[in-house]
Amino acid sequence: MFFSVCVASVFCLFTTSMQIHAQEQQTSRTMEQELRRRALVIDIDARVLTDDLDVMWNEIQRKVAIPGSPVGIRLVGSNVVVGVQFTPFIRNQGNLIVAHVQIWIDNPGSGVSYHTSFQTIPMDFNEQIYFFPLGTKNSSIEILLTVNPYSVIAALEGNSSSTSNDN
Q: What is the SS3 assignment for 3?
């Protein structure tokens, strides 16, 4: 009798844990689908320009963000460090991206100076946004942003890989 009660208890415990595990997997899949649905892809093309506006240095990055969460880039030069965080917001009244810029400049003879600023930039998906962290008067650093829904980028990359396999 005791043995059959123990076996029944173990069986009940095992089936309950299987159900909980299945529910956790379903919840995890649902959360992953929701994150993919809300996720954004931010393409960042950072450039350092000469006085003649020739590209002296260029770096391209692709970052994934959830609306309201920042993604950052840091540019380090011989006498300047520029850190920029871009935070996208998706709203019914219009999408926007907030840029938080921090700049450290080593001025010979006077030490290091620090500047910070916030800018709110209206945006549409797939729109090219030019951002100048040092201002437009001193436009030696230029950042080009493009924001798209993750689902659009995933569909494009899926289509391009399937067409390249057909060749």
A: helix
Residues 40-155, CATH architecture: Single Sheet (2.20)
Among 68, 96, 99, residue whose Cα is nearest residue 83:
99
55-65/129-131 β-pairing:
unpaired
Backbone angles phi, psi at 84, to 5 degrees: -130, 130
Residue type, position 37, single letter: R
Rounded Cα gap, residues 145 and 138, in angstroms: 19
DSSP-derived pairing of the beta strands 111-123 and 80-89: unpaired
Please enumerate in sequence order all residues whose Cβ is within 8 A of that of 127, keeping only pairs 6 or more positions apart, or say none.
146, 147
The conformation of residue 140, written as its DSSP 8-state character, comes to T
Spell out the domain ranges in the chain. 1-38, 40-155
83-128 pLDDT, tens per residue? 999 999 999 889 999 999 999 999 888 999 999 999 999 999 999 9
